[in-house]
């Protein structure tokens, strides 16, 4: 049938979906589900984009109209690239539907990526347009990531009130190391592993002993895990940390065309980091004290 053909095409692209996986349940809900609203809940790296790619492949086979929306235009371009679905910023998509620049055909499907960032007003507007043509609305996101800057909360409300419309992805696929999946699950679960995360980690091959260590140690174990692998560095003071970052920055951009970025949490930390970068540039002969930097 259609789903078997879609899975075959995904496998040909190097994206094999096993029948007993959460991703399979997601694709099944998208392609075979009867709900006109489907919500995919999962953290980054859980494989949500495969669902939209499967939807696009199915749409190509049936001729179903597919459109995508994201809060930002750049995210919409990424959605188009990853799924093949023509996508717009939510503001532009709603505007073009309202003005008739985009006309929905019967049975059209609109997908909204990072749906938790969409406002209630935007989602309601999309739904009104879809309802007129008997279409479907599909959203994906993570309730623990950034929320809408406008009046929102619909993403979380739907999960609580319409659980049958929700597909949950608790398995992380972006990381291949089973232990790293575990430490990221602790961060995602805000320091305390949920039962769903524990079950997903076990299915993914994370050992029982390490899971138990994470359950008891929380963030302390996470920090130590990253420190042991040289991915987190601890310094005695902010100035020492800034100096070390500046040195690594200039090492990173030494090659032709190489780029790097340094990030700080506050404006004061940004000023300290900028000063450290300038001092390191002077020490390396890239600048002199007489240079004026705007």
Describe the structure.
The chain is an alpha/beta fold and 294 residues long. Helices cover 51% and strands 10% of the residues. It contains 13 helices and 6 strands. Helix 4 links the parallel strand 2 and strand 3. The longest helix has 17 residues. The model has no long low-confidence stretch (mean pLDDT 88).
What is the CA-based Rg, rounded?
23 Å
Tell me about the largest β-sheet: 6 strands, parallel
What is the distance, rounded to the nearest whole angstrom, between the alpha carbons of the first and last residues? 63 Å
User: Can you write the helix and strand succession as a string?
Assistant: HHEHEHEHEHEHEHHHHHH
Provide the β-strand percentage band. Answer: 5-15%
Mean pLDDT: 88
Number of H- or I-type helical stretches: 13
Strand order of the largest sheet: 3-2-4-5-1-6
Q: Please tell me what the overall shape is.
A: globular
| Alpha-beta classification | alpha/beta
Number of strands: 6
Q: Which stretches of 5+ consecutive residues score pLDDT under 50?
A: none
Assign a percent range to the helix content.
40-55%
Give a summary of the structure in a few sentences:
This protein has 294 residues and is α/β, with parallel strands linked by helices. It has helices at 2-12, 22-32, 48-62, 73-83, 90-99, 120-132, 154-161, 178-188, 195-203, 208-217, 219-228, 238-252, 267-283, and strands at 37-42, 66-70, 87-89, 109-112, 136-141, 166-169. The protein is globular, with a radius of gyration of 23 Å.
């Amino acid at each position: 049938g259609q789903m078997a053909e879609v899975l075959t095409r995904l496998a040909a692209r190097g994206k094999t979906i096993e029948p007993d996986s959460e991703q399979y349940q997601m694709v099944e809900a998208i392609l075979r589900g009867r709900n006109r609203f489907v919500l995919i809940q999962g953290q980054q790296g859980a494989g949500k984009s495969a669902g939209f790619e499967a939807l696009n492949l199915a749409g190509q086979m049936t001729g179903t109209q597919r459109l995508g929306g994201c809060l930002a235009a750049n995210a919409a371009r990424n959605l188009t690239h990853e799924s093949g679905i023509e996508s717009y910023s939510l503001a532009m998509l709603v505007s073009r539907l309202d003005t008739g620049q985009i006309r929905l055909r019967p049975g059209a499907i609109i997908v909204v990526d990072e749906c938790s960032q969409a406002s209630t007003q935007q989602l309601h507007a999309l739904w009104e347009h879809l309802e007129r043509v008997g279409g479907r609305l599909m959203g994906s996101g993570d309730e623990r990531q950034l929320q809408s800057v406008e009046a929102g909360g619909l993403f979380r409300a739907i999960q609580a009130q319409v659980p049958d419309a929700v597909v949950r992805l608790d398995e992380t696929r972006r990381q291949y190391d089973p232990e790293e999946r575990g430490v990221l699950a602790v961060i995602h679960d805000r320091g305390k592993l949920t039962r769903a995360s524990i079950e997903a980690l076990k299915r993914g091959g994370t050992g029982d002993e390490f899971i138990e260590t994470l359950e008891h140690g929380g963030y302390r174990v996470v920090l130590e895990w990253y420190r042991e692998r040289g991915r987190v560095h601890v310094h005695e003071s902010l100035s020492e940390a800034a100096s070390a970052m500046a040195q690594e920055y200039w090492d990173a951009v030494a090659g032709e065309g190489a780029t790097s970025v340094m990030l700080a949490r506050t404006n004061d930390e940004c000023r300290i980091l900028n000063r450290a970068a300038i001092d390191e540039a002077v020490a390396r002969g890239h600048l002199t004290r007489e240079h004026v930097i705007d």
